[in-house]
Amino acid sequence: WREHFFKYKFNPKYPSLSLVRTEVWRCLSSVAVASCWDAAIFAAMTRGYTPLLDWDRSIVDFNLTDLGVIVLVVLWSDAHFYFMHRAMHEVPYLYRHVHKVHHESYNPDPFSGLSFHPVEAVAYFSSLLVVFVIPMPQFGYHLLRMMLVLSPIGGHVGHGPSRDNPIVNFFTDPYDHFIHHAKFNYNFGSGIFPRGGIWDNLLGTHYKPGADASTLKREAAAHLQAATVGHSL
To answer: Does the N-terminal or the C-terminal CB of the chain have fewer CB atoms within 10 Å?
Structure first.
């Protein structure tokens, strides 16, 4: 069946079955961590500790204020992921002992998305704590929760449309995060927004081959990070 998808594969090789099996187990452990966060937030809500989370309002009550809240939550999720993810790369201890687990998938597949060390899973799903800061209806919380679980699939499929199709790639760009796995020290963004999103472009971490001093420094760090998982760039 692979021949039908091969022309869309960014890396012509496929990950080993043993790695995919490992990724599946790591995904399940990450979902378990998400469930723990969910249970903790629900317990806090039942005890009145989340006054900003309106559990009584459903999607049928949707209004323009809710739309603004959803936009705010998406922006928060994107920023949270970028800075958490970048810290995982730029704090050597976190990379060597936590994040390198995720980068064993340097040729990503859909199961790579939540293939985390438990510590990284706790950090990733801590995005849910926004319910203590931003007022939101219960369906806004559910949207964030499901987005955190499902959105990593898009950036890790390892396949995509032709890079020569600018219209398609403006709206969906799995290649962006593939480059992160292939080059290690670039493109830290969540992938919610295309073409490097907000933070990679703003802070100069979007992958653009070149030879300026900052790129060379980032490239040297990338080689070290790749070597940590037995890969060479």
So the answer is: N
Residue 60 pLDDT: 84
d(CA 59, CA 233): 48
Integer Cα distance of 186 and 179 in angstroms = 7
Q: Return the number of other C-beta atoms located less than 10 Å from residue 224's C-beta.
A: 13
Strands 53-54 and 136-137, bridge-based pairing: parallel
Evaluate whether 139 touches 73 at the Cβ level (below 8 Å). no
Q: If pLDDT is split at 50, 70 and 90, which confidence band does 41 have?
A: very high
Average pLDDT over residues 133-139: 90
> Whole-angstrom Cα distance, residue 161 to residue 9?
9
Band of the pLDDT at 116, cuts 50, 70, 90?
very high
Q: In whole angstroms, what is the distance from residue 20 CA to residue 161 CA?
A: 23
User: Which helix or strand (DSSP H or E) is residue 139 part of?
Assistant: helix 138-150
Q: What is the pTM of this model?
A: 0.89
DSSP 95: I
74: which 2 tokens? 């998406």
Cβ neighbors of 126 (< 8 A, separation 6 or more) are 37, 80, 84
